[in-house]
Amino acid sequence: QVQLVESGGGLVQPGGSLRLSCAASVSIFSGYAMGWYRQAPGKQRELVAAITSGGSTNYADSVKGRFTISRDNAKNTVYLQMNSPKREDTAVYYCNALSVPGGMEYWGKGTLVTVSS
User: Fold this and answer.
1) pLDDT for 63-110, tens place per residue?
2) ∠ Cα 17 22 24 (to 5°)
3) 91-99/4-7 β-pairing
4) CA–CA gap between residue 38 and residue 95 (Å, rounded)
5) pLDDT, tens digit (0-9, with 9 covering 90-100), for 51-66
6) Which residues are CB-neighbours of 46 under 8 A, at least 6 positions away?
7) Alpha carbon distances (Å) from 49 to 1, 3, 36
8) How far is CA 27 from CA 54, 60, 75, 79, in A?
9) Please, which residues bridge with residue 73 across strands?
10) What pLDDT sits at residue 113?
């Protein structure tokens, strides 16, 4: 069982910056793709950014150029650097791990990000 713990959420002003962290309980990076998802009130959960074990990244169009996903294999941690956040980025952000191959999926409990002045 893989456990994921998010941290770093909170209140941030529009145009500011915030970094989210996701710590994994085991060394998962060699066989897992990692991702950040978010869910705003009344909306479906959506992919924000993902990174493969090889370091390839993918972003939602709405965050391209503003958010950056990265991973520190030595620390079993994945990050989401949020620059120039907008009010519409307000959501609960969830960390996701997907085993490749195999398709086993794990979720963190989420961390709330509120973008407001």
Assistant:
1) 999 999 999 988 999 999 999 999 999 999 999 999 988 889 999 999
2) 165
3) unpaired
4) 9
5) 998 899 999 999 999 9
6) 37, 38, 39, 60
7) 23, 19, 5
8) 15, 26, 9, 15
9) none
10) 98
3-state secondary structure 32-97: EEEEEEEECCCCCCEEEEEECCCCCEEECCCCCCCEEEEEEHHHCEEEEEEECCCHHHCEEEEEEE
C-alpha radius of gyration, the chain, whole number: 13
Q: What mean pLDDT is predicted for residues 4-33?
A: 91
Q: Which amino acid is at 19?
A: R
